[in-house]
Design brief:
The complex is a heterodimer of chains A (267) and B (317). Chain A folds into two domains: 215 residues, Rossmann fold, CATH 3.40.50; 32 residues. In chain A, α2 crosses α5 and α3 packs across α4. Chain A is an alpha/beta fold and 267 residues long. The termini of chain A are far apart. Chain A is globular. In chain A, strands 9-8-7-10-6-1-4-5-11 form a nine-stranded mixed beta sheet, with helices on both faces. A two-stranded antiparallel sheet of chain A has the order 2-3. The longest helix of chain B has 16 residues. By secondary structure, chain B is of the alpha/beta class. Chain B folds into two domains: 167 residues, HUPs (Rossmann fold); 124 residues, 3-Layer(aba) Sandwich (Rossmann fold). In chain B, α6 packs parallel to α9. Classes of the chains: A alpha/beta (267), B alpha/beta (317). At the A-B interface, α3, α4, β7, β9 and β12 of A face α4, α5, β5, β8 and β11 of B. β9 of chain A pairs antiparallel with β11 of chain B, so a sheet runs across the interface.
Amino acid sequence: MNIVSLVKLAIDTGQLRFDPSTYKPMLHDIPLKISDIDRNALEEALRLKQYGFSKIYALSLLTWGPLGKRIQEAQNLLREALALGADEAILIADEHTIDSDSIFVAKALAEMIRRIGDVKIVLAGEATVDKFSSQIPARVACELGFSYVGFVRRIEYKDNKVIVERDLEDHVEIVELDLPAVISVTREINTPRLPTLMQIRAAMKKPLNIIKSSDLGLQPFKKTLETNYEGVKVARKNIIIEGKDMSEKVSKLIENLISEGVIIPRR
Amino acid sequence: MRILIVGKLNDIIELSGAASIMIRSSSQAVDVDALSIEKIMRAPPEVETLGYDRIFYPDNIERIETPRQLAETVTDLMNKNDYIYIIAPSTKLFKESLAYAGQKLQIPIIPDVSQIEAGPGRHIFMRTIMAGRVRSYETPLNKAIILIGLGRFRGGRFSEKKTSFVPIKISVDTSFRIIEKREKARGAVRLEEADIIISVGRGFRSKDDLKLAFELADLLRGQVGCSRPIAADLKWLPEEHWIGLSGKKVRPKLYIALGISGQPQHIAGILESRVIVAVNKDPNAPIFKNADYGIVGDLYEFIPKFSEKIKEILGVK
């Protein structure tokens, strides 16, 4: 009985840079990181392990290129997942996974989960910090024919079932679900641990496998969307108001708010 | 060409605005169907006159409420009617259900769409990604599911067509058993509609001090929002105040972030604010990168000074 924790290697949006002439994001040059909410998913997998699960797999598919440059970076990040406590890491990466769409990503992940075998629970973050689309977990569930529940902030494990609390916009639902299941979690579910030095060392000895999508018997994907990214220019004014004291800063701020028309003085 | 709109009756009214953009920009005739996820007892006149061709609704259950039920119903309608677009609100239930359906149908999804541009023979859907710093313009090469942020379009009549209401049978989903459903506390807080939001974060030292923010909000006739730690960890405010990825997405004219560091998850909820002001002691707080006006300083010093000047300007004693 195994658990798979999906790990997106996401663009670190804190380090975004833009081409000065075209103002397109220089995505090839921006470091990747483990998507924040996927850390919560992994933490939850580690917590659930006590219920008789044998292995936790950290499973990732590389979508951000260039492949040659990213492959080492991706392995380093998956070492981090191993240090956090995953027993094995698997990276699906080849020229077909780069810039692939979510239909393809879900197929590849699902096929790998089938090959791992005896997977009862697949966990993932509710969204990734770069594209926020929240669709991979449900797509993977569909491919596998697993039950699916999203936006979960508490999981109670009971034999071949889980009882979860999920958070929708205007209500909370308690849902009972049969396993196997794919579950997407929110950040509220737990506080992810930081690895100890011992764990970081131990992670070097744990298995980390790289698989090509072609080895999973997948056909290269047919494009379904044409996508064009543009940096948001002067999205915000980013004016830091200076002044000799708070009183002066506040006066300047209010002048600005009046000229923006968001505060209207009464005469 | 056919389009399917999915949602509650209110959504079906509002998203008719998106349908009319599609119709205006298309050279072919467009028929628009809708799927109401709630049972319709009698045809509401405000829906009947919009111009929908058919409105499907569940007959054997009150509401379609599990992701798989919704996914299967939509898949079924798609297979019968060959829609070019399926359009729904960009909320959690639709995101997950239609992702499931999208995989079944092998079609892409564009979530969180805030703008639709019509090009010759195609549409470009815009959404903001990467903590608000990148706009993604996405053009489907074939069929697609489009999820639209609510509050974006004003519904209205888009054709003269007479609407027929069509009951459909929904299959029972036994794999997903809802044991309990709890409405979140709904006080007077309507952050989504607020023009001014005073938002509080970890910079506040105690729950008691939040009254400073409430007083300021009263003065400006605004509402109080908060970041994740205040609602989720410290529980100083109920969740209805929570703004961010897991909380509410707001679009006020003025958003004042007090003592909020500005994690990407929080920024995701405030992207569409017109003017953002940030007050934080830490000059390196990421919120400043997402603000129009920043004041590096103590919020405890800021609030009384700001209130005082606002009172002068508004002529409040």
